[in-house]
Amino acid sequence: MNVAVIGGGAAGFFSAIAVKENYPNANVTIYEKTKYLLSKVKISGGGRCNFTNRCTSIPELCKAYPRGGKELKKLFHIFNTTHTMEWFKSRGVEYVIQEDNCVFPVSQDAQTIIDCFLRESHRLKISIERGNGIVALKSNDDKWEVQFENSEYRIFDKIIVSTGGSPQMKGLDWLADLGHVINPPVPSLFSFKIPDNPVTKLMGVVVENIIVSFQGTKFKGEGPLLITHWGMSGPAILKLSSFGARWLKENRYEGKIQVNWANNANNDIVLNDLIQIAEENPKKLVTNNRPYDISSRLWLFFLDKCEIPVTKNWADLTKKNMNRLMNILCNDEYTIRGRAAFKEEFVTCGGVSLQSINMVTLESKVCKNLYFAGEVLDIDAITGGYNLQAAWTTGFIAGKLG
């Protein structure tokens, strides 16, 4: 049996290895159109490779996927985060789990993961061809005729497509031509530009536990927020950009966001907390005894925004002052105008619609003996090792070849 794996990235290598482990006598070749293998793995996690997440609850794991979470549920019962950690450890990759549940190799170097794949490919006698892209696929009875850039034609029994996310629709036209439904790709995982707003003067300030949302929508992001010189970033913002990717595209990356800075407390709780601080510290300046461990720089920014002089004591705050502070802490508003790149990840929302795929085998519903794995599918996740986990899971299932 001759098997072609199109794409030399995370899902491509994982599926090729799975094929050889399931079918030891198969001839498996990975075709990568560029000169570089596993390029996204190399830069993942800032070059340290956050290769999975410790989350062991499958329902919770599925929540990390704005697109594809529901469909991945059954697949995660077959190959999930626990299996991933066992898979790498059994192949000599020791790992460390951070407080945020992100999993990295002990070496803190993505090259460790790359070397693992290259060793396994060599051990299993998987062929790798670089710099020769595929021009066209043609179904011929139960086999596939593949045309390469060098005009060569080859015949394969099975094909696994693992070409990764495409930033433009034209990169997926060849799959649409075969009859697959394509959901247009749009960017995901990015920070927000907030131009001409004094909040950017606080660049470098991090608030650990916030909720951020788009006004008029149900999209929310939770976790740490980082103020940058262009606007806002950090896990909460990246999560919001992921869940709201299509909405943002439709609105040309403009809109209002609301930020709850108060450990996710509601209006009544925050107002009571402020009143308690005033009652316990009446003679102290409002610059002291800041609520919710808010940094001094951010608190001074809030006071200025509420037009409260820093020379005031807590006892001197009026009911109007208190309500303004409460509203800022719970419902602060900012206007976003554009997106900024998140350099550590390049993730797109969109790809081959899961309606075109048998989500038990990952075989195409319209093309026999054609399988899919990785981000070429309309599956994407928030940060935290989830996108690579989807690559491992879909690669493992596709590698069963039905």
Descriptive account of the structure:
It is a single chain. By secondary structure, this protein is of the alpha+beta class. It contains 13 helices and 22 strands. The chain has helices at 10-22, 39-43, 58-62, 69-78, 81-89, 111-123, 173-176, 235-243, 245-250, 267-280, 296-305, 319-331, 386-398; strands at residues 2-6, 27-32, 52-53, 95-97, 102-105, 127-130, 134-140, 143-148, 153-156, 158-161, 182-188, 191-193, 206-214, 220-227, 231-233, 254-260, 332-337, 339-340, 347-352, 357-358, 363-364, 370-372. Strand 4 and strand 5 form a beta hairpin. It is elongated.
How are the SSEs ordered, and which strands pair?
Layout: E1 2-6, H1 10-22, E2 27-32, H2 39-43, E3 52-53, H3 58-62, H4 69-78, H5 81-89, E4 95-97, E5 102-105, H6 111-123, E6 127-130, E7 134-140, E8 143-148, E9 153-156, E10 158-161, H7 173-176, E11 182-188, E12 191-193, E13 206-214, E14 220-227, E15 231-233, H8 235-243, H9 245-250, E16 254-260, H10 267-280, H11 296-305, H12 319-331, E17 332-337, E18 339-340, E19 347-352, E20 357-358, E21 363-364, E22 370-372, H13 386-398
Parallel strand pairs: 1-2, 1-10, 2-6, 10-22
Antiparallel strand pairs: 3-5, 4-5, 7-8, 8-9, 11-19, 12-15, 12-18, 13-14, 13-16, 14-15, 16-17, 20-21
Q: In angstroms, what is the radius of gyration? A: 25 Å
Topology, number of strands: 22
- Overall number of structural domains: 2
Distance between the termini: 14 Å
Instruction: Tell the overall outline.
Output: elongated
Overall helicity: 25-40%
